[in-house]
Amino acid sequence: MNVLWLQSGGCGGCSMSLLCADTTDFHGHLSSAGIELLWHPTLSLESGDDAIACLQSVLAGRTGLDVLCIEGALLRGPRGTGAFHLLAGTGLPMIHWVQSLAERARHVLAVGSCAAWGGITAGGDNPTEACGLQYEDDRPGGLLGAHFRSGSGLPVINIAGCPTHPSWVIDTLMALAADRFSSHDLDPLNRPRSYADQLVHHGCTRNEYYEFKASAARPSDLGCLMEHLGCKGTQVHADCNIRLWNGEGSCVRGGYACIACTEPGFQEPGHAFNETPKVAGIPIGLPTDMPKAWFVALSSLSKSATPSRVRQNSRADHLVVKPAVRKTRLK
Amino acid sequence: MSRLVVGPFNRVEGDLEVTLDVRDGRVDSAQVNATMYRGFERILQGKRPVDALVYVPRICGICSVSQSVASARALADLGGLVIPPNGQHATNLMLATENLADHLTHFYLFFLPDFVRPVYAERPWYAEALRRFHPQTGEQMRQATAMRQRWLTLMGTLGGKWPHTQAVEPGGSSRAIDAAEQVRLLARVREFRVFMERQLFAAPLEAVATLDTEENLWRWHAQAPLSGDMRLFLTLVHDLSLQAAGPGPGRYLSYGAYPTPDGGWYLPGGVWRAGGSGTVPLDVGTITEDATCAWLTQPGGALHPQHGYTQPEPDKSGAYTWNKAPRLGGEVVETGAIARQLTSSLPLVTDVVRRHGGSVYTRVLARLVELARVVPLMEAWLLAIKPTEPFCVTTEWPDEGMGMGLTEAARGSLGHWLTVQDGRLARYQIVAPTSWNFSPRDAQGVPGALEQALVGAPVLPGEHTPVSVQHIVRSFDPCMVCTVH
């Protein structure tokens, strides 16, 4: 399966993350699954003319293109010209290259939230007219248009995240290579269900603090980050606390809020990233699928029942009160 | 005279184009084009100051922690925060993890693959280079990529994830390290030490870090010229005369790397000049950015970044890049590991730069020596953490004020300057390492460091993407995505 990978309006962090894939043999891991990189900006030998020749060979139909991976937002500015990124050595806007190559591709992957929705690059007043391949924030459209379908008949597969987890990308590529990926494997935002059917909350190590609404007040506190520090993990689709990052990590395990980086429009939340917006003391963003009245009732009950240990530890950066030692047998 | 437009360069971070005028088989003049504009400095305007901590790491996927540290320091400057020792150690550890990962990535994944090109097929070392350094099949590539993955698991524990590690706070780190983690992290750093000592150096780190003269370096090389990848690199240097390739401007800038708890630096910064008598203090007030050759407006001439601004002017005549031209006291400077080793007075790098100046050889050598020098520091920082003491302090942010945050990324000096009015960011300016190294010409027409370094590079008959140019470009370890923030 031939894979061509191009970067535009982004940071390159999804490629850097990809290289953190949990394998002792990165290239062997891909090649044993039948994945061949035609060209990748970080990994290939070919530069300059050789790289352009590779793109031209695809456009001319001499080289088959099974998967086109795009990393970074598509920069349409200034004034729709695409001149905010002309691909080096070609004098042509990158959006032109992406549109032409997408027509040749059996599958098109948006790697990262920039390529999926516009992402961080579309922040503020979106000075570069950035958009995703098939979305602009949560609005279908983007560079290729809402009706675009790749050669396989699928829409753009949005492997959203900022950055993406390496195995979200590799699992998807391997499923495509094995011809085990269909429209049923996409969620309503065309993200692979293999990671997007979980919530970041699932597997969160702060769960005891969450249960008792024992909340962190400042960075490095051990408590739950939802009530005060802006954490959206109970609403955000991704398996970050099940499929961990860089060994043992995740954002909330690192002591900071889930900022919903897999969701469209996360870059402009309408509130400070590290503060939870509330109405009458109740967070506006309640856990997914949970009625507000239930949340309010459960919260007040659990707050009144918070063990002293949990309350004290929630406002400390290490365990100040250890769990009591108890016998767990019946006798 | 003929003209070559070279690009896309891969194995640099981001997109890069270089225009070369070639005369008699040599580069006569060069223009460096950072081909993309992203507008972070505009995106940040009007944001709450601490929201910058979400946006700025996403300037760059390879120097992400460096961007976070610069921003956190600018905010700490704004709020008058002093980081507790644990927070300083944890931040240094995260920054060093990234910087050393970047050095490893640069050496193996970005720089060395160019030596397996067919143009070198007749060289005596070619078969060995191909076996070790082919980007897909090279044995050392496989091992280095696996080591990089393993190394970056430090970040999972220290900061949750990498890149875009938001554990970096103005007041320290949001991730306290407990005693058990201290032991595990130390074991992980020692794994890296073993990789370096077996694969890269084939020698103890301390033996490499204490090589004191070029003569002793080459004597060490001669003991076993093919043993370890650093010695094979030196073999390439000797055979291809890389000591003469890509001469830099002879002036070097470092802001100082890795603060000590008492306010000093583990690798002190400053300015080092060829022919001078050592490191002199840096006057940050003399930093300016000149947009003469950038597609950006510049009504009032070059500006200090505390007063700078960024407004695209895509049709500007005479412009050829999205990068501004930073200058120190009006002069072009080079930044990177070579500058850090010079300003912190490492004898070996001082000796080789006195003999050869900045070059492909000395830039890469400085990175390798830095790897040997910083790993033992990381071991010491891990041992210095006191798990029951605080990792982070907080403050109330003023509604008005200014802040400056300086740090050393893998690639060199990174600065953030911010101004807050009415509780919001009114101005945010970023000067990245590659902004310095890959600067365009300034108002006086003086070319930037790479533009100077490329002059004289050989262009072989039939070459459209000259291999000499690729070595020189990649010797700076450019990060274009930082440059085009």
Could you characterize the architecture of this molecule?
The complex is a heterodimer of chains A (331) and B (485). With 331 residues, chain A is α/β, with parallel strands linked by helices. Chain A has 2 domains: 2-195, Rossmann fold; 198-318, Cytochrome-c3 Hydrogenase, Chain A, domain 2 (Irregular). Helix content of chain A is 24%, strand content 13%. Chain A contains 10 helices and 13 strands. Chain A has helices at residues 13-18, 26-31, 48-59, 94-104, 113-117, 166-177, 193-196, 207-211, 292-304, 308-314; strands at residues 2-7, 36-39, 65-71, 74-75, 86-87, 92-93, 105-111, 130-131, 135-136, 139-140, 157-159, 278-279, 282-283. In chain A, the strands form 5 sheets. Chain A has a 5-stranded parallel sheet, with helices on both faces. Chain A has a two-stranded antiparallel sheet with strand order 4-8. Chain A has a two-stranded antiparallel sheet with strand order 5-6. In chain A, β9 (135-136) and β10 (139-140) form a beta hairpin. Chain A is elongated, with a radius of gyration of 22 Å. The termini of chain A are far apart. Chain B has 485 residues and is of the alpha+beta class. Chain B has a single domain (2-159, 175-484), classed as Cytochrome-c3 Hydrogenase, chain B (Orthogonal Bundle). Chain B is 40% helix and 16% strand. In chain B, β15 and β16 (424-431) form a beta hairpin. Chain B is globular. The mean pLDDT of chain B is 97. The chains are: A alpha/beta (331), B alpha+beta (485).
Q: Main attributes?
A:
heterodimer, A: 331 residues, alpha/beta, Cytochrome-c3 Hydrogenase, Chain A, domain 2, 10 helices, 13% strand, B: 485 residues, alpha+beta, Cytochrome-c3 Hydrogenase, chain B, 18 helices
